[in-house]
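Recap quiz, item 2
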Amino acid sequence: MSVWQRLLALDRRWVFAGIALAVVIPIITGYTLPLGKPAPPTVAVYEYIEKLEPGAVVMFGFDYGPASMPELHPQALAMMRHALERDLRVLTVSLNVQGTVLASDALQTVGDALGAVDGEDYANLGFKVGGAAVILGMGSDGIANVYRVTADGRPTADLPVMRGVRNYDDVALVVDLAAGNIPGAWIAYAHQQYQQDLALGITAVMATDYYPYLQSDQIIGLVNGLKGAAEYEVLLGLEGREAPGMLGMSAQSIAHLLIIVLVIAGNIAYFASGRRARR
Amino acid sequence: MRLQVPLVITFLVGLFMAVQFFVPHELAQGPYDALLAWSRIVGAFALVLGIGSLLRTHWEKMRRRRRDWPYSLATIGSFLAMCVIGLGWGHEPGTVFDWVFQNVQVPLDATMFSLLAFFIASAAFRTFRARSTEATLLLVAAIVVMLGRVPSSLIVLFGQSGLGDLLSDRLPDISEWLMNVPTIAAKRGIIFGVALGSIATALRIILGIERSHLGGGGGGGE
C-alpha cells in the first residue's frame, strides 16, 4: 500500500484526535491569534448602537439554546455591554423557551460588571409562545400587553425601564440573536410591517441565509458567528476573560486550518493514488 | 359539518388577514388585534398538546418495554424533575432550576453540537474531492470562505511573512465578495421560489384545496 493509499485509508479516530488537540491546546495555553479587520456588517451594528442617544431602548431577542451558546452568547455579552455602557435601556425577549434563561445569565453577567440595575437599566421580559404572533402583537397591542410580567414575575408596565415604551415606535433597535429561522419572522413582521430597525446575531452556518437581507437594507447589520463576536469585542476594546469570543476564535481558527489541510491532503492523495492506479 | 366549518373559518380568516394588511382602518385593526391575541392563546394550547403527546409517546414506550425504553424513563423523569424544581422554586439566576440548566443542560447540549465538528472534519477529509469542475469550484470557494472567516490562521501557516500578511489581509475581502455576490444571487433565487411556493400553498389552504391540516391524511384535492 502506497503512502497516498495509506493516507486515504486513515482511521477517522486520528482526525478526531487532531481536531480535539486543535481545539483544546489554544484554549488551555491561552494562545491567541490576531483577528484582522472587523467585517463591515459587524461594524454597522457597532456604529448604529454607538450613535443612539442615552436612554434609547435596545431590545434583544434571545432565540437560541445552549447548543449555539459558544457562538451566540459572546455576541450577546458584547452587544449588551456596549448598550449598557452607552446608557441605553436594554430589554430581552425570547421566542425560544431556553433563551429566557440565557438572557437572564447574560443580563446578570453584564449588569453586575457595569453596575446596571435590574428593572431600571434592563429587564428580561421572558418567553412567550407564538413566534410571529408575538412579534406582531408587540407592534399592535404593545410590548407590556404581550409580555405582561417579566421572566421573574414582576409587572412589566410598572418597571422604570419601561417608562414611555409602548411598542416598536419607542424601540430604537431590535437585535435578534438566533440559531433557527426566527430572524425571518422578525424581518417580515417587525421590520416590514412596523419599520423597526433590526440587526441580527446569527451562527456562521446561517450567514448565507441572511446576507440578502443585509444587501436589501432590511437589516442594519449582521454579527456573524464567533468571528463576529470577537470582532465586536475588538471594537469595544475588550481583552482576556471579558472577551470570550476572542478566546474561542483561536481554537476555531486552528480547527478550520486543520480541516483545510485535511481536505487538501485528501485531494492530493486521491489524485496521486488515482494516477498510480492508472499506471 | 366537521369538514365544512373549519374550511369556512379558514377561508374567512385567510381572506380577512390578506385584506386587512392593506386597510389601516380601525374596523380592520380591531379584529386583527383580537386574532393576534387568539393565535398566541392557541399557540399556548399547542405547547400543552405537544407536551402531552411527548409524555404519552414515552409512557407507552415504557409501559410496553419497547427497545431503548430506559431513555423514555430518563425523558419523563427529567421532565417531571424540572417541572417540580421550576414551579416550586422559580427559575431566576441562582435557583436550583438555573443551576441544573447551567450545569446539566448547557454542557449536554453543547457536547451534542460539538460532536458535529469531529464528524464534519472526518467527512470533509473523506468526501470533499475535486472530482468535477463543479466540485472543484465548490472546493475552492469553501476553502477561500473558510480562510476568510479565520484569516489569522494563515499566520500559523506562513508566519508573519509578506505572503501571510497579504493573504490574511486580502482573503476576508474575497470571502465577503463570495458571500455578497454569487451566494446572494443563488440565495435570492431560492427565496423567490420559496415565497411563490408559500403563496401558492396559502391560497390552496384558504380555498380549501389543501386539507391535510384538518387531519385524516391526504394532501388535498377533491
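Chain A is about 55% helix and 10% strand.
The beta strands of chain A are 57-63, 89-94, 122-127, 173-178, 198-202, 221-224.
End of item.
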